[in-house]
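ok so for the tutorial part 2 we go from a plain amino acid sequence to predicted structure tokens. step 1 is just haveing the sequence, like this:
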Amino acid sequence: MAQNVAARAPAATDNQVRARLARFLFRGRRADQRDPGALLVASHDVPFLRDLGITRWLRLDGELTGIDPL
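step 2 — the prediction. this is what the tokens look like for a chain of 70 residues:
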């Protein structure tokens, strides 16, 4: 997981990456897992969400979509 975060934040030091992961309870060996599972991101910033590569969207009306709804 730390490698994935570092790839998206190339200016961040290893300590900064690990500190950010620790805020989400990914500490020690958990930060080195290859597959982080799922990530829930809440934002109104559609370009930001697209840049993250979000693959599933949950709209406030409760409908889950597998494609970019916009």
